[in-house]
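Q: I'm writing up a methods section and want to include an example of the input and output format. Could you take the sequence below and give the corresponding predicted structure tokens, formatted cleanly so I can copy it straight into the document?
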Amino acid sequence: MATGQARAAEGRTPVGGEGGGPSRRERLFGTLQRRGAIVVLLLVVAIASLRFDSFLTLRNLENVALQASFLGLIAVGMTFVIISGGIDLSVGSLLALGGVLAALSVQLAWPLALLLPVVACGLIGLGQGLLIAKARMAPFIVTLAGLLGIRGLALALADEQPVGVANDSPFVWFGQGDILGLAAPIVFMLVAFIVGGLVLVRTRYGQAIFAIGGNEESARLMGIPVDRTKVIAYATSGALAGFAGALLAAQLAAGQPVAGTGWELDAISAVVVGGTLLTGGAGTLSGSLAGVLLLGILQNLINQLGTLGSYTQQLVSGVFLIAVVLVQAYLTRKQRS
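A: Here is the clean output for your methods example:
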């Protein structure tokens, strides 16, 4: 993933180092910024293993990964959006809409329950991307409107009630089945991270994402199709949120119009914890995966303690996110000083 980071520097003025390249100090702080979440994840796993005998069991670890898989799919799209310098607050509502559309369409044909949420939510993301790229509207405003409007659409389609899915439908396998011994949603999440990672660091589109997030005006002068790149990022984010919603509906055997409430903040938290800068231009999908798993493990540990309130996870996540942002700001200053 480091290759994409190096490419992101092409639109920036180099600081220090021989021949205008990054100095050893810059590389050190840059590596800490990108890989810190992975180090913290390993430390938390080690500590949790010593504290709880049941933590490092295959069943518990698979449960953590399964619960994190739906958020993980959303985090893949969110990583692309944030690296490009944007934000997507509509993904939680898109997940709910995807689940409702899946539950409604499965009654016609179960393959449609997978296809329709991806296409419909992808088109909504495409529309948001066009407003942001072409109409020059602020991503925060556009996707905040999407958060509210799409949630209302999901509630209206479901008549404000869960939409049931027959347990004998082949569709439920996508949420309850397994592939090579792993729960199907986990496999889909891992495939999304692998494919997304390859796109991010091995394609021109990935180079464009980093360049736009680093300096949009410089990217335009370089001939990079800024508007098209942004639109694709938001369309991808929407499609992945819709797919996550379909998988969640398959697991629950119901489309829940209230599902995904607050997940947009969880996805942003996971991506930022993973080392992606909110200002854009830097980030990795391996870091985002570490961030998703880290939040999932924190939730699991809080559940195992059992004596803490239901809102403790939100409090811990909030404090943890503030700490990560402060550390990122410190590392960025050190890297550029």
